[in-house]
Design a protein that fits this description.
The complex is a heterodimer of chains A (150) and B (139). Chain A contains 6 helices and 4 strands. By secondary structure, chain A is α/β, with parallel strands linked by helices. In chain A, strand 3, helix 5 and strand 4 form a beta-alpha-beta unit. In chain A, helix 4 runs parallel beside helix 5. The relative contact order of chain A is 0.21. Chain B is built from 4 helices and 4 strands. The termini of chain B are far apart. By secondary structure, chain B is α+β, with helices and mostly antiparallel strands. A 4-stranded antiparallel sheet of chain B has the order 2-3-1-4, covered by helices on one side.
Chain lengths: 150, 139
């Protein structure tokens, strides 16, 4: 199954999804497509005028272009997602979105899609980490592996 | 070029493995580009080959090796600290934050492998306003 993760560039979440035999939908793949595309002029400043327009599918025109640009990149991943993992209360340095409103909108888009979703809290001690790992692995184990990476 | 992917392999800080061992293990067996870093290695090749490598190196320390895709190719000048005149490279803070968490994640994976009963952690929630007021008055 294709599993969207939030933060969309998380090493830990991406790794756990792959361990469970599913395919993580991560931002790095989108970035990889763009930076290797010769048609884009000046990566890494590679947000072209297409992304805010693409973002209009996910947010209204009044929403700042920065949010729409981010959504133009991450939104299609949510469209593709068959399940999702959301990590809450992570320290400010964990997560690449860099915009609280975008994160709120992403959470909204995931919930509005009514796909199997698990919401976990960032672990600040070992016991909480054990619980988080178990909850995520149990959730991933309960998903159908038919469209997964393996 | 578009078929080429890059992956990051990160070694948990509590692992006995070193990036050098990891690099040597990979270059002995596979013809891919490998770059040794302070936290693990970057590898570059086709997607299938990279997955085989990750599965292979996991044998060295099953729950101590973590991996994810990377957007930029190895040695890309656009994200190189040298050409960008210093500063952390894009993605550093995320990797740094998660690197510190890896020993706890390993403990979780080890506990699952042992079939250990995971105690329910009570959600402490936010502090009650009365308790907060009392603390403020006392200090």
């Amino acid at each position: 199954m294709k599993v969207f993760i939030l933060p969309p560039n998380s090493l830990i979440l991406s790794d756990l999804v792959e361990r469970a035999g599913h395919e993580p939908l991560v931002l790095m793949k989108k970035i990889g497509e763009r930076v290797r595309d010769p048609e884009i002029d000046s990566p890494p400043l590679n947000i072209t005028d297409k992304e805010p327009k693409e973002g209009l599918r996910y947010a209204a025109i009044e929403v700042p272009a920065g949010v729409r640009g981010r959504l133009g990149l991450i939104g299609p991943l949510i469209d593709e997602a068959e399940a999702a993992i959301i990590l809450h209360d992570a320290p400010f340095s964990a997560g690449c979105v860099g915009c609280a409103r975008t994160e709120d909108l992403l959470k909204y888009l995931i919930r509005a899609k009514f796909i199997p979703t698990i919401e976990v809290i960032y672990p600040h001690d070992e016991e909480a980490a054990k619980k988080m790992v178990k909850d995520i692995m149990d959730f991933l184990g309960s998903l159908d592996r038919s469209n997964g990476a393996d | 070029m578009k078929d080429t992917q890059t992956r990051v392999i990160v070694i948990s800080p509590d692992s006995i493995l070193t990036p050098e061992v990891l690099r040597n293990t990979i270059i002995k067996k596979y013809k891919v580009t490998v770059k040794e870093t302070c936290f693990g290695v970057y590898i570059e090749g086709t997607d299938d080959k990279l997955k085989d490598i990750v599965d292979d190196v996991r044998e060295l320390d099953k729950n101590g090796i973590f991996s994810k895709s990377r957007g930029f190719p190895i040695g890309d000048v656009r994200v190189c600290r040298s050409t960008r005149k210093g500063g952390p490279r894009p993605g550093f803070h995320q990797l740094d934050a998660e690197y510190k968490l890896l020993p706890r994640i390993r403990a979780g994976l080890d506990a699952m492998d042992r079939g250990e009963e995971i105690p329910q952690v009570s959600d402490k929630g936010k502090i009650d306003i009365k308790i907060l007021s009392k603390i403020i008055e006392e200090t």
